[in-house]
Amino acid sequence: MSACILDGKALAARIEVALQEEVRLFSNTLMRSPRLAVILVGAVAASHSYVKAKSSAAKRVGIDSRVIELPTEVTTAELIRLIESLGDSTQQIPFDGILVQLPLPAHVDTRAVLDAVPPKKDVDGFHPENAGLLFQGRPQLVPCTALGVQKMILDAGIPTAGRRAVVIGRSDIVGKPLAMLLASRGLGGDSTVTLLHSRSPNLSAFTLQADILIAAVGVPGLVTADMVQPGAAVIDVGINRVDSQLVGDVDFISVREVAGWISPVPGGVGPMTVAMLMSNTLQAARLQSGI
Ligand code: NAD
Questions:
Q1: What global pTM score does this model have?
Q2: Quick one: 91 and 175 in the same domain?
Q3: Ligand 1 centroid – CA 172 distance (Å)
Q4: Are residues 160 and 110 in the same domain?
Q5: In testing the pocket of ligand 1, which one of 194, 224, 237, 250 has its CB within 8 Å of the most ligand atoms?
Q6: SS3 assignment, position 213
Q7: In whole angstroms, what is the distance from residue 46 CA to residue 48 CA?
Q8: Is the CB of 170 under 6 A from ligand 1?
Q9: CB 116, CB 84: distance < 8 Å
């Protein structure tokens, strides 16, 4: 039997509708909309299309977003100065959220730039303070993709408590925070988590045990049907361009015949990432305004 499709696009649209109302209430109380600054460096086509999707979503939910475009030659120091000025909370209408679209050019110290974002405005959840709070089980702002995957799991009613979750990929952006969320106490957590990476031998030995299998790697078709336990939930974070088409890390056609649930690419995790950015921006605005 074919797997249930985890339709991230439809779920993201439902989340946006709920956010519209919450943003309206916030704006009525504070007499201003939540504000998001997006820093976009250089001319990477994928980055431009991601930023466009984020700006459109902000508009739909009522968040006031501004894109600041900078040339590839910008320096680390210039970026940090810009973030400091955008993060200045004494401005008449301050920015609630600051996002630096990645990747930055190779000459820029990405770590130093991300560390300059004030933790309460860190809507991507990449600052060490936010990573640490997530690690300690008291999350403040959680990386959007990881949060989006957890929401998809919860929305589909996929049980996590006591289940085996295998995450392939250990990036600070996706794999590690997702492993933390799934291992943390409470709803959408309490899983027994295994984190696989490029040095893990014999992926199948682990993936075949997974009740929940998440691929966040960037290798097209890495997860094949023979690596999946029948009935497992398979969530594909990967975005790869093959012959000008977007594909994930999971061989969708074969895996859907084995899995219990599967997320497509496109239309799965991608839209959820954007919806969670909107949710984080509202959360950041609330954190700073105390409402
Ligand atoms: P990354 O390159 O930072 O990390 C990839 C991880 O995969 C690494 O930890 C590496 O150890 C592991 N890996 C590489 N080859 C492997 C292999 N053969 N077997 C097992 N593990 C292997 O990437 P990232 O930023 O975490 O992104 C991963 C993928 O997710 C990419 O395709 C990216 O485009 C996509 N992505 C999608 C979204 C979304 O919203 N859908 C958001 C972020 C990233």
A1: 0.98
A2: no
A3: 10
A4: no
A5: 237
A6: strand
A7: 5
A8: yes
A9: yes
